Amino acid sequence: MYELYFNRAPGTYNLQEMARMFLPSSEFRILDVDPLTEGTKPLPEKMIRIPDDITDKNEAKSYLFQQLSALTGQSPDWGILTGVRPVKLAGDMLAAAGSLEAVKERLQNEYYVSEAKANLIISTLQTQKIAMPETGPSLVGLYIGIPFCPTRCLYCSFPSYSIQGAAVGAYIEALKKEIRFTGEKMREKGWRPESVYIGGGTPTSLTSEELSDLMDVIRSSFDLKDCKEYTVEAGRPDTITEEKLIAIRRSGADRISINPQSMNPETLKRIGRAHTPEQVIGAFRLARAVDFSVINADVIAGLLDETQEEFSDSLNELLEQGPENITVHTLSVKRGSQLAEIDDKYSYRTGTQVGSMVADAYQCLISKGYRPYYLYRQKQTTGNHENIGYAKPGAESLYNMRIMEENQTVIALGAGGGSKVYKQKDKRLERVFNVSNYQIYIDRINEMLLRKEAGIFDDREETTCQI
Ligand code: SF4
Question: Where are the domains positioned within the chain?
Answer without folding.
Answer: 2-72, 86-131, 139-410
